[in-house]
Specification:
Elements: E1 3-6, E2 11-15, E3 19-25, E4 31-38, E5 91-94, E6 104-113, E7 132-141, E8 146-155, E9 160-169, E10 175-187, E11 193-197, E12 209-212, E13 217-222, E14 234-239, E15 249-254, E16 260-266, E17 272-278, E18 285-287, E19 292-294, E20 298-303, H1 306-321, E21 336-338, H2 340-343, H3 349-360, E22 366-369, H4 398-407, E23 411-416, E24 420-421, H5 426-430, E25 450-451, H6 457-471, E26 478-481, H7 503-518, E27 526-529, E28 547-549, H8 556-566, E29 575-580, H9 588-595, E30 599-603, H10 611-626, H11 628-633, E31 635-638, E32 648-654, E33 660-667, E34 677-679, E35 689-693, E36 698-702, H12 703-708, E37 711-713, E38 722-729
Helix pairs in contact: 6-7, 8-9, 9-10
The chain binds alpha-D-galactopyranose.
Residues 340, 370-371, 415, 482, 484, 530, 532-533, 549, 552 line the site of alpha-D-galactopyranose.
């Protein structure tokens, strides 16, 4: 059992294989946080909390004039509201009598086997081989009877704890949640912590920023209705001296695809508090008597082995515990070619078959028909929402087109953008009230499209029905699910004026219902997510999509940074990456080596390639297959940080049994007649001998030599040369 309750000390210890998390039912039945970090077997760490008379920090009335007890200075598992704690809080509720207060005290707890699930929101699951236990702690406000249940699922082998909260209105009148975070995490001393986040923009997603905590509230958020290009719903708090290999690192990934918020405050006593959850901006959610409200889950992990250690825990967890699709592991994902950058909106069935024929020689196994095949869709002004085949373009019909592609021995994939509608579409003409538009105003256009009110059941049903009809009409193997704008006009015609604060969250719940109705009912179709590239790449989406289109930016050198940043959380097998015509100065082989750092494919017009290029692509497609398992399921190491001024960028994938490794090196700035460069490997077995191949030489070296001395990378090679080193243990 990974959850231990010590009845006399009133402590709960949550043990994973390498971490311990401890909390305690403390003074006046407030639940205190005691510890999170490397495994500790002590059952009561409350000696860590010292109490002082803290000026201007109030004392709860029932502490009976005990001036040393203030919630402002206690580490807590969840916060109160208006009970003397002035720090950022995890709950803001307006009670039925109009007051803003919450004073949650422990009333009960339960422990059970397996992870918790949430109403309408995705969560991680346990495989048969996983040991997972859940602790639920109920806090209740004695006056309002509002209950908050703290949920903790402990994934023992993975070193991950999944958390969320459930609010129950046990009172007689309706309450309004103004802010409800998924968890609260207090650090007794946060002075030496750095905050890492993954900010970006369209085409430049998930760059890496690191800054020391200062005495402010640091905010990482999206208010765009999608988890966004601008911020990812992930942050890490790491020791100031933590690097790739050493130092304490705490990761927090929110399983939510809408507007989110993470706040970290370093307070007056250098305590740090972190909260994360649904963005409270434009949020106000009523909960009727007897009803519940569930927050999205958060996945937290801890490693004392640096940023790399933290990332590898996430990679394992995302591969194992988020998505049950057979395409995650059991069925090899095909090399694909996508028509977007080849033809944009200008194609027909004949052109698609031509692309397929040419691509076959490149080792491509699947053709993906991107935007433009449906309704009246010749540019981005029309057609969205009309999910029926445009027979002017696909003259032979979809079933027949797919048959022709299948006859070439290739699979077929298709593109949808379910949540959107064009004003020039049959759907909009029939249901103008289905869009999000604030009364008396015109909706903001973005890419000339409007957003459907996906929180509405009739909209959800339309999408499920119309998209499933297409999916069931032909032998479709793959779907790219796109979303090409942010949400700007929060309004639902299906809700009364006083309930408009629900719209943003209802949209996300509605979206998950639509995805359940389409994705979960088609286990034989492989689904890839996309939002103008990686605008909604998050751990909730990965419960549906086996992979996510990382970015519309296919420039290979930009992708070095994009993949580096994404790899903080996401494993290679989830990151869509393609070879395209962008950056002609970069050799095809190098583009492919970089795309192999994700799910591999092409995004170009195969009919225009020269014979030599087709052959090079074929070699690269074969290489992708050859190293598929190593690349997708090995342990990933970031070897060089491309955000620094470097001459080479490198990363490595090591087989779980350390018998093999793949080290990819890209030369980005090798000056003429410069010094010899070495790339030091990681994660190998020190005393084993490995053969190394990849730059024309073949030699043998110990793991020790490869990790401490490194691989010498040839100099005087053309700019942007890629070396893919294969290391194979002898014996
Ligand atoms: C988005 C996607 C692209 C492509 C276009 C089609 O921008 O990220 O890959 O599918 O939409 O409109």
């Amino acid at each position: 059992m990974s959850i231990l309750y010590n009845e006399s000390k009133k402590t709960f210890s949550l043990h994973t294989f390498r971490t311990t998390y401890q909390l305690k039912i403390g003074n006046l039945n407030y639940v205190n946080h005691l510890y999170y970090g490397s495994t500790i077997h002590d059952e009561d760490l409350s000696f860590l909390i010292r109490r002082y008379d803290r000026g201007f920090s109030g004392n709860p009335y029932d502490s009976l004039k005990e001036r040393t007890f203030s919630l402002d200075a206690q580490p807590q598992e969840f916060t109160t509201q208006q009970q003397g704690d002035f720090r950022i809080n995890s709950i803001e509720v307006q009670n039925a009598d109009g007051s803003f207060s919450f004073d949650g005290r422990y009333v009960s707890h339960t422990v059970y086997k397996g992870p918790f699930t949430l109403n309408g929101l995705p969560t991680a699951f346990a495989r048969e081989t996983d040991t997972v236990d859940t602790l639920e702690i109920v806090l209740e406000d004695a006056v309002t009877k509002v209950r908050v249940t703290l949920l903790y699922s402990v994934f023992e082998e993975a070193d991950v704890i999944m958390r969320a909260v459930r609010v129950h209105n046990g009172g007689d009148g309706e309450i309004k949640l103004k802010r409800i975070m998924s968890f609260n995490m207090d650090y007794m001393n946060g002075k030496n912590l750095d905050l890492i986040s993954l900010p970006g923009r369209y085409g430049q997603e998930r760059q890496v920023e690191r800054q020391p905590l200062t005495h402010h509230v640091h905010k990482v958020r999206s208010g765009r209705g999608i988890s966004s290009h601008q911020q990812n719903p992930f942050i890490a708090l790491v020791e100031r001296n933590a690097n790739e290999e050493y130092g304490e690192c705490y990761g927090f990934a929110l399983m939510y695809s809408g507007s989110f918020l993470a706040e970290v405050e370093l307070d007056q006593y250098d305590q740090a508090r972190l909260v994360m959850g649904i963005n409270d901006r434009l949020f106000s959610y009523p909960v009727a008597p007897g009803e519940d409200f569930d927050t999205p889950a958060v996945l937290m992990t801890y490693s004392h082995k640096g940023l790399g250690g933290m990332s590898r825990k996430y990679h394992n967890f995302i591969r194992n515990n988020l998505n049950k699709s057979k395409f995650v592991r059991d069925v090899k994902r095909p090399v694909l070619i996508n028509t977007w950058e080849a033809a944009f909106f200008t194609f027909d069935d004949v052109k698609l078959v031509e692309i397929a024929k040419a691509a076959k020689g490149m080792g491509v196994e699947m053709v993906v028909m991107d935007d433009g095949w449906f309704g009246k869709r010749d540019d981005d002004n029309s057609g969205l929402g009309d999910w029926y085949v445009n027979e002017k373009k696909i003259k032979c019909g979809l079933t027949e087109l797919v048959r022709q592609i299948n006859d070439l021995g290739m699979k077929f994939g298709i593109w949808f953008e379910p949540e959107m509608v064009s004003e020039d579409s049959d759907l909009y003409r029939a249901h103008p009230d289905w869009v999000m538009e604030i009364p008396g105003r015109h909706a903001v256009r973005s890419r000339n499209q409007l957003v459907l009110d996906v929180g509405r059941k009739e909209v959800q049903d339309y999408l499920i029905e119309s998209i499933n009809r297409i999916l069931d009409s032909a032998n479709i193997y793959y779907v790219k699910w796109d979303d090409n704008r942010a949400i700007t006009d929060l309004w639902s015609n299906s809700l009364p004026a006083e309930r408009q604060g629900e719209v943003s969250h209802r949209y996300v719940l509605g979206l998950y219902r639509v995805m359940d109705g389409i994705i979960k009912t088609h286990p034989n179709i492989m689904f890839e997510g996309c939002a103008g590239g990686g605008g909604r790449f998050d751990t909730a989406m990965l419960t549906y999509f086996v992979q996510y289109w990382s970015s519309d930016n296919t420039k290979p050198l930009d992708n070095l940074k994009l993949h580096y940043g994404s790899s903080f959380l996401y494993p290679t097998c989830t990151m869509g990456a393609h070879v395209s015509n962008a950056s002609p100065m970069v050799p095809l082989e190098t583009k492919a080596a970089i795309a192999m750092c994700g799910t591999f494919g092409y995004e170009l017009d195969a009919t225009k390639l020269k014979k030599k290029e087709i052959q090079a692509c074929k070699r690269m497609s074969n290489l992708y297959h050859k190293y598929y398992d190593l690349n997708f399921f090995g342990d990933y190491y970031r070897l060089v940080n491309p955000f620094e001024q470097v001459n080479l960028v490198a990363w490595e994938s090591v087989a779980k049994d350390r018998s093999e490794a793949l080290v990819t090196v890209i030369t980005v700035n090798l000056t003429m007649n410069g010094p010899q460069e070495y790339i030091k490997c990681r994660g190998l077995e020190p005393n084993r001998l490995y053969t190394i191949e990849g730059d024309g030489e073949k030699y043998t070296a110990s793991g020790m030599a490869l990790m401490h001395a490194g691989i010498p990378v040839p100099r005087e090679v053309p700019d942007f040369t890629a070396f893919i080193y294969h290391l194979k243990a002898i014996g």
